[in-house]
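Annex B. Sample input.
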Amino acid sequence: QVQLVESGGGSVQAGGSLRLSCAAFGYIASMNCMAWFRQAPGKEREGVASIYTGVGTTNYADSVKGRFTISQDNAKNTMYLQMNSLKPEDTAMYYCAAKGGWPCRDFVRYNFWGKGTPVTISS
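Annex B, continued. Sample output.
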């Protein structure tokens, strides 16, 4: 089993920055992929960024490329999402997820999830 705990959400003005963290607990050595998803009110959940934990290969949704950066600290069993140049449309609940399979960038079949951390961007 794997447990994921997100933190770092909050409210900022457009143009600002936030860094989300995802602490992983349990049998994380089996997780090849970790990712950030988000779900805005009234919208479907979407994949934002993924990372192949073995070598650090990353992938981003077009809507966040150049603004968001996913990273990992293996010593701390923690994944991060640095979000810069935030826009009101980035407002959503952000979730951390993990899976053992590949590929990471397809954003499907992630089977371990955190409870989410809210992000609100005001204009």
